[in-house]
Amino acid sequence: MELAEILSILSLVASPIVSFLVARFYGERWVETARRRREHSVKLNEGVLKPWISKVGEYCKIDAVYSRETDQMMGVEPKDPTDLEFFNAARSHLELKYPNILKAWEELKLATSDHNKERAIILERIRKLVLEETKKPCYYWSPGIETPDEYVRPDELVQHIYQEIEWREPNKRKWAGGTPYVQPTMSGNKQFYHLTWNSTLMESLDKKDVEKAILLINSIIDTAKLRDEVKDLKKRESEVYKTKWQNFETKMKELVESIELGNNLQGTCRFCP
Questions:
Q1: Is 273 within a domain?
Q2: Residue 22: what pLDDT?
Q3: Which residues of 205-244 are buried (b: 16+ CB within 10 A; e: fewer)?
Q4: How distant, in Å, are the alpha carbons of 76, 106, 154 from that of 79?
Q5: Which residues of 139-177 are buried (b: 16+ CB within 10 A; e: fewer)?
Q6: What is the pLDDT of residues 165-176, one digit of tens each?
Q7: What is the pTM of this model?
Q8: CA–CA separation, 27 vs 20, rounded Å?
């Protein structure tokens, strides 16, 4: 038998054996890798993508609050969902294979930031007016700080005023959160008068001060220019902010549904199998 024939026979015998060994060894590895990739996709879907969608209103909240550091009303800045344990891993996947989702998210954050800055400008203007007219010391509650005999809480008062203006336009009703009123109280041998509007927003030894404050509240709410500004900002909230929210939510839900249908999350991260 010639050498060529011998080699041909050996090749025919060895080929199936080699194929079997390769399929067995690498096939098992492939199955295990595929299983782990699937688990990874499901984990990120359940632990990041879904909670992200459900908590958009928390991460991109429409609000402005008082800042002691700057002594003025400041727009609340939107934030990434870094409270979700594997957010950075999910973000890595999105950056590589789903940049349109991250683009929509950044656009929503920008819309939120811009809206809140405008809201803060309006609230700050009201706050300054309240301070000028009431002529009372500011009191911002904090643990361990003693409550003075006379004070005004402008940060909370302006929020009540703004919310009342916001409510009146579409609902055609007044005092959604109740009516502000004078509440007399005694402390020791002193008579105090509170401006109560869901909570105590002002305290004075003179009843007339609180009565004047209530007149001021009504005057601010009835200011046509201010009502128009709040109305316009509310309109833009629907046209810009909510549109950006819907755009992001739609794209993210499409990805979530794709994973739930059995597709894996594309891209990579440091935890990928």
A1: no
A2: 45
A3: eeeebbebbbebbeebbeeeebbebbeebbeebeebbeeb
A4: 9, 10, 26
A5: beeeeeeeeeebbbbbbbbbbbbbebbbebeeeeeeeee
A6: 999 877 777 887
A7: 0.85
A8: 10
Residue 93 lies in a domain: yes
Q: Answer yes or no: is 265 within a domain.
A: no
Hey, how many other C-beta atoms are within 10 angstroms of the C-beta on 40?
19
* Distance between CA atoms of residues 187 and 13, nearest Å: 103
Domain hosting residue 75, numbered range: 6-260
Do residues 177 and 155 make contact, with C-beta atoms less than 8 angstroms apart?
Answer: no
Question: Which residues 6+ apart lie within 8 Å of 110 measured at CB?
Answer: none
Phi/psi at 65 (5° precision): -135, 165
Structural domains of the chain, count? 1
**Virtual torsion, Cα 107, 108, 111, 113, nearest 10 deg:** -110
Which position has the token pair 């004047």?
Answer: 212
Length of the chain: 273
Is residue 180 domain-resident? yes
